[in-house]
# Entry
Amino acid sequence: MAHNTELGRRGEDLAVEHLEARGMRVIDRNWRCRIGEIDIVARDGRDTVFVEVKTRTSADFGHPFEAITARKLARMRRLAVAWCEQATEPVGRIRVDAIAVLAPTGARTVVEHLEGVS
# Structure
C-alpha cells in the first residue's frame, strides 16, 4: 500500500508540474469532503479546473485513463459542486480534466492530459 501511495503522490506532483508548465495555477490539492477527494484544483484563465490523476507503472492492466469510469466522473462533478460551494473567490466556468501518468521503472515517464472529460 505504501508503494501505491508514493506512486500516486509522485504522479500528482508530475501532474502539477505539467499544469503549471501550461500556465495553469494550482489552487488546491487533495481536497476532501464526505463524498470523496479531488486530486487537483487549478485555475486556467477564468476557469476552475478539477483534475483527476491516475498513475500506473505500466499499461499491463489497462491505460490509466481506463480507470476513470462514468461513475468516477459523476462523483467528480458532485465533488466540484461541493468545492465551489465553499470557495471564497469567484469560480467562473468549471471543467473536469483527467491526467494519466505512466511511470515505468527505469524508463521515461509519460504525462497525458485530457481536457473537459465530463
